[in-house]
Amino acid sequence: MARYQVILAYDGTQYRGFQRQLKARTVQGVVETTLRELGWSGQAILAAGRTDTGVHASGQVIAFDLDWKHPPEELGAALNAQLPGDVAARSVMQVEANFHPRYDALARTYRYRIYCWENRDPLLDRYAWRVWPLLDIDLLQRAASLLIGRQDFAAFGTPPRPAGSTHRTVLQAQWSRDDHELIFEITADAFLYRMVRRLVSFQVEIGQGRRELEALRQALELPPDSALQGLAPAHGLTLVKVIYPSDRVRILN
After folding, report:
1. For residues 120 and 123, what is the distance between their CA atoms, to the nearest angstrom?
2. Tell me, what DSSP letter sits at residue 234?
3. Fewer CB within a 10 Å sphere, N or C end of the chain?
4. pLDDT given for residue 180 in this prediction
């Protein structure tokens, strides 16, 4: 029996999020079903985080224990042969038995995609939020710079446990332009529930001149009693990377 780490990618469109649910199709559910076909007898896989309904991933990390007699790359091939077409194992490696994809993580990176066209594009709508009128990218950059550091993000999300801390450390936050798209990328030690989507929604309002930068400063310095209502659509969001200290993901031969 050995522990394996898998970098997982999935299109979240047809899933009610990552976490297993009794009567809904979830990413965890289809992965565990596939693993059982390969001889896995565990109760639940471990995961770096729980993406919400409709959210995608290119760098979700899972781990599980399995009695597998072949090289890890053959396990990856076996998984991909059985998984549905909207889920794939990008890489598989054997790791130390006490590795935990959630508790060992240092940070996570999310990416949010927007395109600013007056008319919608069906080829973009699955993975990006159409926003109109145009956004001022300079205002977006100035807004993103206010997010960096250890701050109280209670205005933008709720903690995973009742009465949990709403303070998070944002390591980097920035906007970039890629052809017709605007991309927001943010890395933090952890995230509140729906934090990225609320931050995107708020910044879009700033970029369209509907809010002032000062409103963002105030929301961070004097958070309201409950999270703000603005919420960017789930389909623009992707979990792209989970970051670990080098000594916590030691590949075993």
Report:
1. 9
2. G
3. C
4. 87
Secondary structure of 39-108 in HEC code, one letter for each residue: CCCCCCCEECCCCCCCCEEEEEEEEEEECCCCCHHHHHHHHHHHCCCCEEEEEEEEECCCCCCCCCCCEE
Contact criterion met (CB below 8 Å) for 101 and 47: yes
The token duo for 101 is 């994809």
CA distance linking residue 90 with residue 245, whole number of Å? 20
Task: Name the DSSP letter for residue 53.
Answer: T
Q: CA nearest 166: which of 145, 187, 195, 143? A: 195
Among residues 138, 142, 120, 137, which one has the least CA distance to residue 129? 120
Q: Do residues 9 and 54 make contact, with C-beta atoms less than 8 angstroms apart?
A: no
Q: Give the pLDDT confidence of 30-63 residue by residue, as tens digits.
A: 999 999 999 999 999 999 999 999 999 999 999 9
pLDDT tens-place string over residues 82-92: 999 999 999 99
| Cβ contact 155:219 at 8 Å | yes
Q: Could you tell me if 140 and 186 are in contact, meaning their C-beta atoms sit under 8 angstroms apart?
A: no
Query: What is the spatial distance between Cα 101 and Cα 64, in angstroms, rounded to a whole number?
Result: 10
∠ Cα 216 158 222 (to 5°): 35
SS3 assignment, position 101: coil
Burial class of residue 244, CB neighbours in 10 A (0-12, 13-18, 19+): middle
Query: How open is the CA angle 206-208-211, to the nearest 5 degrees?
Result: 35
The question of whether 247 is a catalytic residue gets the answer no
Classified as helix, coil or strand, 112 is strand
CA torsion sign for 3, 9, 12, 13 is negative
Contact 42, 9 (CB under 8 A): no
Question: Which of 52, 65, 125, 136 is flagged as catalytic?
Answer: 52
Distance CA 213, CA 33 (A): 47
